[in-house]
Amino acid sequence: MERIRVIHDSVGHTLTIWLGDPQQEYLSTLTDDEVVVMKDKQGQILGFEILHYRPAEPAAGLSVEAVVQAPSIG
What we know:
Blueprint: E1 5-9, E2 14-18, E3 27-30, E4 35-39, E5 45-51
Antiparallel strand pairs: 1-2, 2-5, 3-4, 4-5
C-alpha cells in the first residue's frame, strides 16, 4: 500500500485524501454530495476531495487516525 496523504486547505476549505499517486490522476468527477473523486486511467480511485470542509472545532485542527496491519504470511 502506498502512503496516504491528507491535505487540509483551511483557506479553500477543502480536505483532500490521496490513496495513490496524484501524478496518475486521469479523471475527476464531482458527486451530488460535493465530493470530488480522482481516478487513474484504469478507473481505480486515487483519492477524493471534500469541498466546503470545516473542522467541527476550528481550534482543534485536524485529527488523523491510522490503522496499520502487518502483512499476512502464507
